[in-house]
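I have been asked to look over a protein record a colleague put together. Alongside the sequence sits a line of tokens, each denoting a local backbone shape. Please read both lines and tell me whether the tokens look consistent with the sequence. Take the sequence as given and treat only the tokens as open to question. I have pasted the whole thing underneath without changing anything:
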Amino acid sequence: MFNFTSKSISLERKYLILRKDNISSKKFVSSSSVKVFLKKSEQLFSFDGVAFDIWNLLEKKILFEDLIRKLKNEYKTSEKKLKKDVIQFINELEKHQMVKILEK
């Protein structure tokens, strides 16, 4: 089973990641970007490129390794760099309470 953790993602464990329910986001069809508004802190974020793709993939629960696999199919980069960048982004989302990280 999965247990909620507020720890940051590392490569040593398996994680399930999902968006929190209290997040408002608006996709802009004409461009590959999304605006995300946090009601509690009244902060506005704009995601495009890889961040846009990650945010879309987090619409449903996803295992970290599946997220990496899907992104690897889209972007031509080393798996090591991809994992490092995605971990950094997911940890930043978690810091702003935009996602839940569940540890397997």
